[in-house]
Amino acid sequence: MSPATHSCHSREDRAGSSLDPAKIQEIFRERPGPLREQDHPTEQTSEPPNPPPGRIRRFARYFYDRFLRLHGSPEQVAWGAAVGFFVAMTPTMGIQTLLAVPIAAFFRVNKVAAAATVWLTNPVTAPFIYGFNYMAGAKLLGYPLKAPFFSNPSWETLWYSSKSVFLSLMVGGTLTGIVVGVAGYFFTLGMVRAAREKARKLRRKKKESNIFL
Fold it and tell me: What is residue 155's predicted lDDT score, i.e. its pLDDT?
């Protein structure tokens, strides 16, 4: 065998000895595989969850049940609600609760009902309620629906416009307050009476079932 052939065989032997199967498996085990989705996470923006409709319904149902269980006769609760509805129509948002509760206390009607129903006027409904009251009051008092200050800005027209807007809101709010208060009284009276009669029947039925047990 020639020296060249011997050297060739020796290189093959070294190559074969270096490519040991255990080493090959170890190389492929350490070799990084394809990137998986969890190895390269994508940034996700989390949106605040909206309250489910069921939770809102339960919330409203809770306050509805609490309102029907207020202390006092149905007439006292209904008159308290009427006071709240009346004050809600006046241009006093921000201090309406401070007005409704003393008025209800003066007339000896339910103060909680007055404080609850006064929120018929709130930041969402106020533009519609006050807008209607202003148009009704301005029509009755003969004031223009569009305040003169916007067409002729001056201190005089500002004073006149402020006075006309306030008086229109007061007159319109008083009239609609009487209508809404009377309607709210009878609606609340019927609702409270029906709820208490239903509760009375359930208690009677439960008592009778316990007797037969």
Answer: 65
Measuring CA to CA, which residue among 117, 109, 114 is closest to residue 73?
109
Structure tokens at 125: 């409904």
Burial of residue 96 (CB within 10 Å: 0-12, 13-18, 19+) is buried
**Global model pTM greater than 0.85:** no
148 Cβ contact list (under 8 Å, min separation 6) = 157, 160, 161
The encoded tokens of residue 210 equal 């316990």
- Of 114, 89, 117, 45, the closest CA to residue 179 belongs to 89
d(CA 39, CA 123): 50
| pLDDT tens readout for residues 14-31 | 555 455 556 555 555 555
Task: Write down the domain spans for the chain.
Answer: 53-212
Nearest-angstrom CA–CA distance, 134 and 132: 5
